[in-house]
Amino acid sequence: MIASDQFNPQFVVDSNGQRKAVILPLDEYEALLEDLSDLAVAAERKEEGTISHDQLLKDLEADGSI
After folding, report:
1. Residue 11, domain extent
2. Angle at 34 between CA 43 and CA 29, to 5 degrees
3. H/E/C letters for each residue in the chain?
């Protein structure tokens, strides 16, 4: 996740100096999209139950993932 102090935005302003749009470097924009996607997945899954670490390892071993 990118911290807000790591962004390098440029702003488009109107004739009154009010910010109307932002320009970000492409890599920062893509990182933001990835963070938003991760947050959306987390929000969708927040009601799911949890399992112990040991159970996770057993499940991964059983399906051949590790």
Report:
1. 4-62
2. 130
3. CCCHHHCCCEEEECCCCCEEEEECCHHHHHHHHHHHHHHHHHHHCCCCCCCCHHHHHHHHHHCCCC
C-alpha–C-alpha distance, residues 39 and 55, integer Å: 25
The structural domain count of the chain equals 1
Token digits of residue 29: 């924009």
Tell me the per-residue pLDDT of 9-36, one tens digit each, with 9 for 90 and over. Answer: 999 999 999 999 999 999 999 999 999 9
pTM score, whole prediction: 0.62
Give which of 47, 35, 48, 46 is closest to 3, Cα–Cα.
35
